[in-house]
Structures are given as C-alpha cells and as structure tokens.
Amino acid sequence: MVKFLLSRRANVAACTDGFDNTALPWAAKLNLDNSHKDIIRMLMEHRSDPNHKNVKSLTPFNYIVQLGDLDLVTFFIDEHKADLKKLKPDKSNALAFAAQNEHEQVMDLVLKNEVNINQSCKYQLITLLHHASSVSLLKNVQRLISEGAEVNAEDWREYTPIFNCIIELHVLLAVLPLVFFRVDFGEERKQVIRLLLESGSDVNHNPTFEQTKMTILEYFLS
C-alpha cells in the first residue's frame, strides 16, 4: 500500500499528527522486528528528510537510533550522511536515544563515535543511565555502568536512575510501546533494579520533588 501511495506521488513531507511528524518517524516507531524496514528505505528513496524536526526538536534519525537495528542506523549514516555527533537543542546526544535501543550494537556504534557517556539533558538533567533504566534494558545498563555512568545522578525531579526504572513505566509505555513488547521485559526489569542496587543506588534517597517524598524501599512497600 505504501509503495502504491508513493507511486501516486503521496507527499512524504506531510505532517498530520499535531506534533509535526512526517511518515518517516511513524515508520521508525512502528518498526517491530524490522517490520517497517523496507518502508523506511522506500520513504528515503522518495527523499523523506531524516533531519526534519518535530515540535519537540526530535528528528526521524533520532527515532532510528532509538528503535532501529545496526543495519538500519548504518544505512542512514552511510547513505544519507546522518550525524551521530549532532546534539539536540537540549544538549542530548545520540547516546540518549541508543541507550533505549534493545539492539546493543547500536549503542556500541555510538560509543565508538566518542560520545560523552555522562552527558545529560540541559534542561531536565536526564542522563544516559536514566534513559536505559527507564526501559529496563539490562545489557545497556550494564554497559553504561561499566563505562562509569553515575548510578546516583539526579534529574530535574531529583530522580536517580532506579526511580526511572520503577516509576517511569506507565509514562514511557505511551511513548515507546514497542520497547515494552519484549517477552522477557518483567524479568529483565527485576534484574536492572537488582543491578542498580548492587552498583550503589542510594535506597534512602527521597526526591523532594515528590509530594510523598518516598524512598525506593517505600515505593516497593506501597
């Protein structure tokens, strides 16, 4: 159907969802098990812009790094000159997206491009370990910690990464549903929490941003 629409000169630059997204980021977000890889390549053949910014300054390539496999990411780099070193306006780098990618080879690729592993978002202070913990990707969390990521780094709400692993689940489910459709998600989430605790997460930290001011232990018991 997509091929048919493109053959009828469908506008690949059209933005229709209220967030100023074109068809390309939609295809990237729906690319479960490479189901949309051919569609993504087709859109690129018809000059879809991988650097088009939506209202949140996110580009289609950001979503590719966040959800695509290594082959798809390198396709954008080699064939369309996508730049892994380009920062978002909030100072987030490509690793912020790769940290939420279940294809750990993508994060390996980004790390080879000398991206700062402790870079945080300028406005919300979210670190790479916050991102990886939010979606409970054990290998990514392990890699970041082994590279020196700070397990007690605080974001704008004073959340440390372990809070993201426990609390952010329902928030991110609406944003990245495909990330959570992993068969082993529940067990992997437990392993990430255990790893963060074993790596020194402060169990008595209670963010003052929260009205309840609960610690990790109190969240588990509530």
From TrEMBL:
SUPFAM superfamilies linked to this entry: Ankyrin repeat
Lineage: superkingdom: Eukaryota
Pfam families documented for this protein: Ank, Ank_2
InterPro entries (UniProt xref): Ankyrin_rpt (IPR002110), Ankyrin_rpt-contain_sf (IPR036770), Cul2-RING_E3_ligase_SR (IPR051616)
Cleavable signal peptide: none
PANTHER family: ANKYRIN REPEAT FAMILY PROTEIN, IQ MOTIF AND ANKYRIN REPEAT DOMAIN-CONTAINING PROTEIN 1
Protein name: Uncharacterized protein
Gene source species: Nasonia vitripennis (Parasitic wasp)
